[in-house]
Amino acid sequence: MVEARKYRVFTLRNFAKVPQVQQYLTPEQLHDIEVVGNVLPFKVNNYVIDELIDWTNIPHDPIFQLTFPQREMLSAAHYREMEKALSQDLSKAELKLVANKIRYELNPHPDGQQHNVPMLDDTKLTGIQHKYRETVLFFPSNSQTCHAYCTFCFRWPQFVGIDELKFAMKETDLLVEYLRRHPEVTDVLFTGGDPMVMSAKKMRAYIEPLLEADLPNLRTIRIGTKSLAYWPYKFLTDKDADEMIALFEEITERGYHLAFMAHFNNPVELKTEAVRQAIKRIIATGAQIRTQSPVMKHINDRPADWKEMWLEQVKLGCIPYYMFVARDTGAQDYFAVELERIWDIYHKAYQQVSGIARTVRGPSMSTNPGKVQILGINEINNKKVFTLRFIQGRQPSWVNKPFFAKFDPDAIWLDDLEPAFAPEFFYEQSSALKNISLN
Ligand SMILES: *Cc1c(COP(=O)(O)O)cnc(C)c1O
Ligand code: SF4
């Protein structure tokens, strides 16, 4: 049995009181956290601190890197700018101006993030994104936070308040109506932040109307969440844990596929008794847990990390699903791994697991035209190339066709790549673009 744990959250305001912080961090490290944490979001909880971080391995510990701001996450110039502002006894509003100026220089809106807001008659559905034909993303207004914040998070502008997401009233009614009018949609993906910060009661208020609408096209309800890694007690001992589990059972009993899209970034997150029990409990409802993570320097950039994650996940009954390339936003320079090396990590890890764990797809870049997978590095006509393909595309017809980019050892994102044998990538040709519907 896992003992209940009371959720305690730490931010810039109170983190210096954490015993481990006092014992293991130097005054310089505290200062760095203060400076960087005034620009990028910072939030951590007692489970992460007590069970996941190995405090004898600071600063290299992957979960410390995942949750605590590090000096090098800002450029030297940005760091000095914020540091200077903090030393000047400025008002809160003045500090925020400095922070926001820096934030806007960190590419807060990498491609594709601001598009895809669909319409229902004259209403803009700001809580919905519909980029790929079968799947609609739904951002419940009550899930715009997380149990802790990842230092690499691409949703960081929401958490620091420079993207005020505006939500529609009666958002669930609008979602149901949208699904009714879009019979091509089979999957709804609840995302955020983290929908699993919501109470069971709030979650039920979203799910029930969906179930009651009895939409013939709806097959899969997905929940994108980091809660298993950051707060497994959500499904074990929190006061509404049983209610949440009962809600999952209701979804599967009604004949829907409930897919838990769980974010795990490092094998450590799979090792506590709490996470193992939580996984068991969720799977027992008939749900399936699929896993995903980006490849990040300092967190999981060795083949052994991935091999171990996939093996552990399979052993615990989860299905490895996606390996992503880090997006070009926020502290990307700190975390970015060259595409060549990411391919190598994937390739080496994939070789070492049995077919059961080879359900994982990657390495994949979520770009404006679609999810682009690196299939390999090849030589064609004496030319070294990246072989790529879409695993998801704005145009369904783009999916699965291999295409080629010039090899570039420094490339970290699709933008850095050039077509190998043509003036443009096939999806950039005007005939391809002409047909794009942005909804
Ligand atoms: C990845 C993704 C999906 C889901 O794609 P699947 O391949 O079906 O998992 C849906 N919408 C967006 C915007 C995505 O990035
Ligand atoms: S859990 Fe997901 S949304 Fe939340 S901070 Fe981490 S990456 Fe961002």
UniProtKB/TrEMBL annotation:
Belongs to the radical SAM superfamily. KamA family. InterPro entries: Aldolase_TIM, Lys_aminomutase/Glu_NH3_mut, rSAM, rSAM_sf. One of its GO terms (molecular function) is metal ion binding. It comes from the Bacteria. Its cofactor is [4Fe-4S] cluster; pyridoxal 5'-phosphate. Keywords: 4Fe-4S, Iron, Iron-sulfur, Metal-binding, Pyridoxal phosphate, S-adenosyl-L-methionine. This is Lysine 2,3-aminomutase.
